[in-house]
Amino acid sequence: MTVDLVIVGCGGHGREIAELVRAANRVTDATPWRLLGFVDDAPSEVNRKRVQALGMSWLGPLGTLGELPRATHVVLGIGDPRARRVVAFRADTADLPYATLVHPDATVGGDLVSAEGLVVFAGARITTNVVVGRHVHVNQNATLAHDCVADDFVSLHPMATVSGDCRLGRAALVGAGAVVLPGRRIGAEATVGAGACVTRDVPAGTAVKGVPAR
Ligand SMILES: CC(C)(COP(=O)(O)OP(=O)(O)OC[C@H]1O[C@@H](n2cnc3c(N)ncnc32)[C@H](O)[C@@H]1OP(=O)(O)O)[C@@H](O)C(=O)NCCC(=O)NCCS
Q: What gap in Å lies between CA 33 and CA 56, rounded to an integer?
């Protein structure tokens, strides 16, 4: 018995999710995923070849989701939070269930309250009493610590560290290797630059960078 799964997006993020799925299938005692392939409106030639090189297929544009059996699960393989939100809006019309995917080398603590579409990559840590919205992605070796709340479409890029009791607004992005100090608030659609250290709250829709982040 397997569960069918389709990834939206042939880009690097989507293909990294395919690797996550393969890893999960190798060790899990849960029902394995059967990865049917990727949907993407306009995959570049090079990305189509990369998908093929993984032994997988591009199934067609996003509309293909509407032709799949009702039990087929979907995961959004779009790295940028704002782009992911736009794609989710379209994918929702297919009314297929979204998968939650946790790499076997990631850890997730107790009392995680999670909406659909959470993806937790290798080495990532979600500690304890965390709440996440829809389609939150925690990339390789990133940490979302105790008592944090991450709204829909939040992304933590690789090695980002969000300390305890932070609040991340809808579609906020914490860049690679950035640190958010305890209790800080990152507004909706704000971007924390790679390597930044956030010492003050970040207003919605703004971008900050550097140490301390400005
Ligand atoms: C901060 C950020 C949002 C700025 O994006 P941008 O506005 O397109 O910035 P630009 O590339 O035009 O650079 C503008 C200036 O900021 C500097 N800069 C860019 N990113 C920076 C960062 N993370 N820290 C410090 N300075 C940075 C550039 O050197 C440039 O400086 P200059 O004007 O003196 O030459 C972006 O660079 C970033 O860090 N995004 C996070 C993405 C990430 O983590 N990706 C990893 C994916 S795995």
A: 14
The ranges of the chain annotated as CATH 3.40.50.20 are: 3-99
* pLDDT one-digit tens code per residue, 161-210: 999 999 999 999 999 999 999 999 999 999 999 999 999 999 999 999 99
Q: Which fold has domain 3-99?
A: Rossmann fold (3.40.50)
> Residue of the nearest CA to atom 16 in ligand 1?
209
Query: How confident is the model over 78-137, as pLDDT tens digits?
Result: 999 999 999 999 999 999 999 999 999 999 999 999 999 999 999 999 999 999 999 999
Catalytic residue among 103, 137, 146, 157: 146
Q: How far is the CA of 134 from the centre of ligand 1 (A)?
A: 27
| Four-residue CA torsion sign, 110, 112, 118, 120 | negative
Q: How far apart are CA 120 and CA 206, in angstroms?
A: 25
Domain 100-206: CATH architecture, name and number where available: 3 Solenoid (2.160)
The answer to whether 146 is a known catalytic residue is yes
